[in-house]
Amino acid sequence: MTTTPPPHTGAADRDSSAVEQRADLDPTTTASAAPSLATKDAHTGQRNTVLTRFWAQKQAKIGVIITAAVVLLALLGPLFVPWATGYTTTEFVARPFQPDGIAGSDNLGRDVFTRFIGGGLTLLLYALLATLIGLVLGVLFGMTAAYTGGWLDSLIMRSNDVLLAIPQLVFALLAITVLGPRGWVLITVIGITHAPRIARVARSATLGVINEDYIRAAEMYAMPRLRLLTREIMPNITGPMAVEAGLRLTYSIGAIASLSFLGLGMQPPTADWGLMINENRIALSIQPWGVLLPVAAIALLTIGTNLIADSIARASASSNVGEQ
């Protein structure tokens, strides 16, 4: 009479048993069973993280360089005015639309180059704050809708559909016309219009996570819902959210610059790239630098953030493929 040998226990089974034993010993370490985004490369032995995959892409390096150059200009420019040019952003230096100096004068005789290097900080700051507001609201509502489900999910997503049906620029124009072209109004309106789009992405990403084993284990140990959302679900949807944040930042830059161009964003005599385009467009054929410089800066910033967002998307997709 022969006996059947016990089945061979592979490395994966031993690892699974070890995880279960650790969970039994310490229920608070449930998150350790979650999939890790950092793995070892089989050939080089280096840690293969989302960051390393992101930086390995050529377009990521180009995007970081372009974005960093424009951001540094926007951040450091106001500090060097008037030391770098000898003028302030509101000082009269020559007759309107004269080619004197580095980039000539604008419609009111102010130095174009001085206003250019001093006019990017407000645009960048407003775009970042608007994106942050939209990201916080969108992630909050999207995760809550996906995890809770039922009538609350339907209520949140149908409300999102109503906001999505209104064109973003039209909604911003209406709100700014009623409340006035103030900075906080501009930031809040752009952020609110981003929230429904971010919520849809957050909900989709959360639905792909909530059925994982480590989420079930956390629920089994009665982990508080808020802690489960912030410590278990949120870290595992950072990839899609980072991509969406990059895209929303690009749209924020374009929206704020467009509203300033229409006269509903930054107000004179503020030095602002979008406002500079509106002020100097009437003399584009005579003195083009007042338009070309801010247009080039906004275009480069948009291209750079798009390249970064696309590279993050590719790095996150490679991470998901590797885990599977």
UniProtKB/TrEMBL annotation:
Give the bilayer topology.
Answer: Multi-pass membrane protein
- List each copy of the ABC transmembrane type-1 domain by range: 120-313
Q: Which GO terms of type biological process are on file?
A: transmembrane transport
Q: What PROSITE patterns does the database record attribute to this sequence?
A: ABC_TM1
Provide the protein's localization. Answer: Cell membrane
- Per the record, the major location class is membrane
Keyword check for Transmembrane, yes or no: yes
Q: Annotated region Disordered: where?
A: 1-41
Q: Where do the TM regions start and end?
A: 62-81, 123-149, 169-193, 249-266, 286-309
Q: Which UniProt keywords apply?
A: Cell membrane, Membrane, Transmembrane, Transmembrane helix, Transport
**Pfam families in the cross-refs:** BPD_transp_1 (PF00528)
Task: List where Low complexity composition bias occurs.
Answer: 26-39
- Compositional bias, Basic and acidic residues, is annotated for 11-25
Superkingdom of this protein's organism: Bacteria
Question: Cellular component per GO?
Answer: plasma membrane
Family, similarity comment:
Belongs to the binding-protein-dependent transport system permease family.
Q: PANTHER family of this UniProt entry?
A: OLIGOPEPTIDE TRANSPORT SYSTEM PERMEASE PROTEIN APPC, PEPTIDE ABC TRANSPORTER PERMEASE PROTEIN
What is the protein named?
Answer: Peptide ABC transporter permease
